[in-house]
Amino acid sequence: MPLVTSKKMLEDAYKGNYAIGAFNINNMEILQGVVQAAKAEKAPLILQVSAGARRYASPIYLRKLVEAAVEDSNLPICLHLDHGDSFELCKESIDSGFTSVMIDASHHSFAENIKITRNVVQYAHDRGVVVEAELGRLAGIEDDVNVSDKDAAFTDPDQVQEFVAKTGVDSLAIAIGTSHGAFKFKGEPKLRFDILQEVEKRLPNFPIVLHGASSVPQYLVEQINQYGGNMPGAKGVPEDMLRKAASMAVCKINIDSDIRMAVTATIRKYFAENPSHFDPRQYLGPARSAVEKLVRHKIVNVLGCNGKA
Q1: Is 279 annotated as catalytic?
Q2: Which of 82, 112, 168, 207 has the highest CB neighbour number within 10 Å of its CB?
Q3: Annotated catalytic residue: which of 82, 143, 170, 256?
Q4: Measured between alpha carbons, how far is 211 from 181 in angstroms, rounded to an integer?
């Protein structure tokens, strides 16, 4: 089975009231853990590459790893560019074999966001590639995305119809209170489901995306801190809120920080308990298993896309 776009995945997710997991990948072990989980749960999969991952591992290495995952798993897998910040980057990714790209021009004016997004859509659609865009701005830090609280903005439902109509975009990331990174809420977690409901009303049957949707499991925070880490106050989006969003118009949920934390917590514990070990395979193997366990939980209990491959 070749790489696929996310178009049918998201259409089926909308009809079935579940969401597809979009998992960020940075190396072989993370990729293997995610794919093994999806294979075990028979789940469709979006594997996404951020700017940081491109710098760390090189796009060609990541693309070849994903191609190996397709061959090994026989799953429907979409390769997605996460937070492409320019037409040129999206074009480069499309030309190199990505089946989906995100153009994030949300830091521009509404009119400029439309113009840039429309150009990417035209180039992508001519080549059978789908496009995600963003309206509104999420706070937080992740790779090259760095938005302060004062610069963050909820999505304005009054703009979504015009934006989608003028750009032809295939899915839309909106801001309803999630944020990037592991420190999402200073007080009690809260998502603006009223905005999501209004967007759903304005864009019936149109797939919505949630960025910054890691849950920051507290057992991982505790394990990291227990073995020398320092993550006081780390807090994510409660999983019941994500499940509610997945039962509405949200068809794609991005997960990155939780995976990083699973890897880090496992390796910290391993080093503390095995100080004489130096073979990377000895600690990367358990880290890969921790990613698989985490992702299987997400697929079944948060996304609800198990058995949908």
Answers
A1: no
A2: 82
A3: 82
A4: 10
Helix axes 239-246, 193-202, angle to 10 degrees: 10
Q: How far is CA 46 from CA 21, 267, 287, 288, in A?
A: 6, 26, 21, 18
pLDDT, tens only, 120-178: 999 999 999 999 999 987 654 455 554 445 545 789 999 999 999 999 999 999 999 88
Question: Which homologous superfamily does the CATH classification assign to the domain defined by 7-303?
Answer: Aldolase class I (3.20.20.70)
What is the pLDDT of the chain when averaged over all its residues?
A: 93
Which whole-number Å values give the CA distances from 309 to 38, 76, 114, in the listed order?
9, 6, 33
Q: What pTM was estimated for this model as a whole?
A: 0.93
pLDDT in tens, 53-85: 999 999 999 999 999 999 999 999 999 999 999
CB 80 within 8 A of CB 255: no
d(CA 243, CA 248): 9
DSSP states of the chain: -----SHHHHHHHHHHT--EEEEE--SHHHHHHHHHHHHHHT--EEEEE-HHHHHHH-HHHHHHHHHHHHHHH---EEEEEEEE-SHHHHHHHHHTT-SEEEE--TTS-HHHHHHHHHHHHHHHHTTT-EEEEEESB-EEEETTEEE-GGG-B---HHHHHHHHHHH--SEEEE-SS-EESSB--SSS----HHHHHHHHHHSTT--EEE-S-----HHHHHHHHHTT---TT-B---HHHHHHHHTTTEEEEEE-HHHHHHHHHHHHHHHHH-TT---HHHHHHHHHHHHHHHHHHIIIIII--TT--
- CA–CA gap between residue 184 and residue 194 (Å, rounded): 19
The C-alpha torsion from 156 through 162 and 164 to 168, rounded to 10°, is -160
3-state secondary structure string, 127-154?
Answer: CCCEEEEEECECEEEECCEEECHHHCEC
